[in-house]
Amino acid sequence: MNLQERDGQYLWHPYTQHKTAALPIAIKRGEGALLWDEEGKQYIDAIASWWVNPYGHSNKYIADAIYAQLTSLEHVLFGGFTHEPAIVLAERLMELLPDNQKKLFFSDNGSTAVEIAMKVALQYYYNKGEKRTKIIAFENAFHGDTFAAMAASGISFFTEAFKGSLIEVVRIPVPLKGKEEESFEILKELAATNEYAAFIFEPLVQGAAGMVMYEPAALDKLITICKANAIFTIADEVMTGFGKTGKNFACDYLTTQPDMMCLSKALTGGTIPMAITTFTQELFDGFYDDDVNKALFHGHTFTANPTGCAAALASMDLLLQPEMQENIKRINTQHLAFKAKMEIHPRVKTARVQGVIFALEINRDSEEYYGNFRNKLYNFFIENGVIMRPVGNIIYILPPYIIQDELLEKIYEIIEQAIEKVL
C-alpha cells in the first residue's frame, strides 16, 4: 500500500468530510517554499502550510537550534519549575511586543491561546466580585475550535452543532471602509450595559473569513471605546503575528494597544506546536492574591516546552534579519503590482493586500465556504502544483517569506488561469 492507502486505514483529518473528499496528498519532503509528494510531484506552498512556515521547510537554522536543545533538555514540567529557554524567549518577546504587555502564559496552539485570554477576562471580574459574563467579537470571526474560541467565532457551520453549549458572545460588524460608524455605535450600546468582560478581534485582517481587511484607525477607536468602559481587549495575532502584515505584529499599526495578545502559528517557524498569550500587569494583578482560589488554574502538559522555546528563539532570529525584512517588503511590492493588474479584471470583484497577504474575490454570486466552486478552484491549483485553500470565491496567497520571485510569479500565473478556466 502507498501512504494514501495506509492513511485511510486509521487517520481522521481536520475539516474533512471523508465520504466525499479526495484522498489526502502524501507529502514526503519539503525544502524552502516547495513540497514533494510520494510520487515526486512538486508543489509550491503558497499559504505557508496554514500560515505557520514563513522561513521555509526544513530550515537548517531552526533545525540546528532544536537539535541543540534536545541534547540538553527536551522537556520539564512548568508547574513549579522554570528553564532558561522560556525565560530568554519571554525577555526577547517583550522587546518586540507593545510596551503595555508585561506577562505571558504558554500553551499549545492558537485555540488554546484564545481560550486562556477569554478565561482570564471572565475570571478577572469573577475575582473582583463583578458580574461580567459576556464577550464581544466581530461577525465572521474565526478564533479556533476549542469551546470558548468557537463561541467567539462567527462562521456558523463550524459551531452550529454546539450552539447550546457555548458562552454568550455578541457580534458587531467589522469596521469596513465607509461602515465604521455602525461598528462604533453598536459597540457603545453594548459597552454601556456593563455586562461584557472582553472584546476579541483579529487585528486588521480576518483570516478564515477570506482575508477581510480593515483600517488601524477604526480598530483604535473600538479599543478606545472598550477602555472607557472597562472592557478588556484581546488581539488574536495567531495568523497576523510575526511579519504577516508587514510589521512584526498587526498591533504595531495601532496607537491604542490591546490588553491581551494571542500568538502561535509562525511563533516556532512551523516546527513545534506552541502558543503564548500575553497580558498587561493589571490583568496579572487581578489574580495575585493570598486566596489560592483566585489563581489561574489552567495548564498544559507541554507548557513552555524547552524545545519549542528554542525553535521560537531561532525563528525570531530569522524574522529580525535585515534580509528577511527585505523579503517581506519584496513580496508586498510584488503583491501590490499583481493587485493593480487583477483589480481591473472583469471577473475580479475586489483585490486587497496587507504585508505578505494577498486576496482577491472572484465576481460571482454568494458561494459556500466549502462549496462546489471553491472545490473546483482548489483542485485546479493542486493539479497545477500550487497549494492554496480558497474560501468560497476568495483566493488568497500567504507565502513563506523566503519564496523566490519566479515561484511567486508562477502562483500569480496559475491564479490568472484559474479565473479564466474554473467556472
From TrEMBL:
Sites binding pyridoxal 5'-phosphate sit at 110-111, 236, 300-301
Q: How does it assemble?
A: Homodimer.
Q: Which Gene3D superfamilies match?
A: Aspartate Aminotransferase, domain 1, Type I PLP-dependent aspartate aminotransferase-like (Major domain)
Q: Does the keyword Cytoplasm apply?
A: yes
Its EC number is 2.6.1.62
* Protein's gene: bioA
Q: Does the keyword Ubl conjugation apply?
A: no
- What protein is this chain from? Adenosylmethionine-8-amino-7-oxononanoate aminotransferase
